[in-house]
Amino acid sequence: MPAAARPALRVLAVASEAFPWIKTGGLADVVGALPAALAPEGVEVTTLLPGYPAVMAALDTVQRVEPLPDLLGSPARLVHATPGGQHVVALDAPHFFARAGSPYLAPWGQDWPDNPMRFAALSRAAATLAQTGGFDALHAHDWQAGLAPAYLRFDAPRLPSLFTLHNLAFQGQFPAELFPALGLPWDAFGPAGVEYYGQVGYLKAGLWFADRITTVSPSYAAEIRTPEWGMGLDGLLRGRARALEGILNGLDTDEWNPATDPLLPAHYDAADPSARAANKVHLQARMGLAPDPDAPLFAFIGRLTWQKGIDLVLEALPAVLDNGAQIALLGTGDGVLEDRVHGATAANPGRVGSFIGFDEGFARLCYGGADAVILPSRFEPCGLGQLCALRYGALPLVARVGGLADTVVDANEMALAAGAGTGFNFAPVTHPMLQASIERAIRLYRQPETWARLRANAMATDVSWARSARRYATLFHEMRAGG
């Protein structure tokens, strides 16, 4: 049914972060982009967020304030506003959220001790608002909102709920002694409920109680139903296979646009990408790399963790260095891996550059100036980095897992013969296979016409939310109809 013919539908989304108000990772980008993507499909999204200081400071168009006199034993408020034209509700509970710094971590680097109650309160507020605010469905994201479908299941009348799983590795498991404080009936504590190996499982609650489940790519939806990647929940996910599907993430292509990006020194588009050369010069200078326009320049942008495969990149450095290429490493994470990055940089001046930390402008410069971006994740629910790389014309070199496999067309011999290919895939996820893929990319880089065609293919790829938004809209309408 065309969007114009569908009845209007109102959805309450709940998450622990959303761009541009609060962001620590890709979850925020997805939650922030979906409302605008769904609007043309006749779906109006209101987003409920914790009232962190940054969120409260952004609420310059407050419409109304709704008291919650007893939110899990404490008073709170719901502050309704429209910052930037988006419908946002902030859970104003200062005792939980009025804290500077990370949304999740205390200044000493560990999780806030009261995170279980902070995010239980967010979920309880979401279920209450969904019932009283005239919404047609609730859309909960990741473990921090995982209890919301559980609260809804025991409320009456009950709204349908969708739970989107962004990363199964983060499950929100807490001691069973917490359960009485959550305000759920004892019927909810058991294998057919929130209990998970003797603990309270917030993510497990979302997977069990939601009417429908999505994850952020079709391949990841299949992978997590296997013992290898199900992380203890594969049995539950196989049991709920009919309710589970993968809907690929997208990008806000207005926000991510090399023709207008204010963080790039030089702008360009698919019709004329020549200005990428100027960005490459800036990137080499900023990373302390030799000013060599002919050297293939690779970039790694992401968390320095085992999951993201930075150790594989370091082990595969001979493929870069022995073939006259350069590499820029940007990210922060595990201290041991950070030290290894420092060591590789010191040992290879002018060839390996690094920046420990994260800077949005620096990341954009990597996408806009590098020739290729390496994403060797051991598992990847979707990944936004390869979508950014495609959009900016830096060919993604990816492990063939999850959303990386779903979004990058390998430039193998048959693809090249057909004029296809948008990047490079490798499997299994080992450093010899990564090294071989890097060497293959370098060979093609030294064939300028072939590389230009691959870059044109990459930049022509539709990385927007359009297709996925249509599927989400259909899913919400099916849920409202009881499907």
Automatic annotation (TrEMBL):
The keyword Glycosyltransferase applies. Gene3D superfamilies: Glycogen Phosphorylase B. ADP-alpha-D-glucose binds at K23. Keywords: Glycogen biosynthesis, Glycosyltransferase, Transferase. Belongs to the glycosyltransferase 1 family. Bacterial/plant glycogen synthase subfamily. It is an enzyme of class 2 (transferase). It catalyses: [(1->4)-alpha-D-glucosyl](n) + ADP-alpha-D-glucose = [(1->4)-alpha-D-glucosyl](n+1) + ADP + H(+). GO terms for molecular function: alpha-1,4-glucan glucosyltransferase (ADP-glucose donor) activity; alpha-1,4-glucan glucosyltransferase (UDP-glucose donor) activity. InterPro entries: Glyco_trans_1, GS/SS, Starch_synth_cat_dom. GO terms for cellular component: cytosol. This is Glycogen synthase. Residues 10-238 form the Starch synthase catalytic domain. GO terms for biological process: glycogen biosynthetic process. Its EC number is 2.4.1.21. Synthesizes alpha-1,4-glucan chains using ADP-glucose. Residues 291-452 form the Glycosyl transferase family domain. Pathway: Glycan biosynthesis; glycogen biosynthesis.
